């Protein structure tokens, strides 16, 4: 797969088929992940792949409970997703959250069918600087294999139970960074259409100075059109 296709079409997939992911496919995904950059090449990461159905059912229960806690926070005006970004339309933000909740409800309702969970652990991760490149590499490599997924943090509400179920040696400093649900998607891959254009979220040399070009549409796939206009 051409790299720009992967970059432009990899998105969160919450509607997954129950078909198992072959072990050699899983190996290729993780082999790409461990090539990700990390500070000092310390490689202080560990990946736990879970395909045991009984374990997945237990994590499904925890996921639904944790998600209920997060949406209760949202309902009462708490949490990071409540407030729109500066300058964003509150109505558009509410609609986005409604759609995300809908697809998230599907994942919660069908979590028991997810073929593969991937728990990602790290030590002294400096706010995620060393582990998030590897997680993004997982999602990109999965995309190349036709596998979709979503990264979620909600099981941090039950971190101790996750550690217990997976036998995590927390005394060594390991801490869960995220969990990914992985599977072959029911939907279609496509370029995300709901992104603000580059020139609206970028500046040059100082905050709010023009970026220099307007980018009114996605630049992939390539378009045979005139040059991009200069930003005013």
From TrEMBL:
The highest taxon in the source lineage is Bacteria
Is Flavoprotein one of the keywords UniProt gives this record?
A: yes
Going by the UniProt record, its keywords in alphabetical order are:
Flavoprotein, FMN, Oxidoreductase
Question: Does the keyword Coiled coil feature in the UniProt annotation?
Answer: no
Pinpoint the Nitroreductase domain residues: 10-184
Give GO terms: molecular function aspect only: oxidoreductase activity
Q: Tell me, what's a Pfam family for it? A: Nitroreductase
What transmembrane ranges does the database entry give?
Answer: none
Protein's name according to its UniProt entry? Nitroreductase family protein
Q: Which organism is it from?
A: Mycobacterium parascrofulaceum ATCC BAA-614
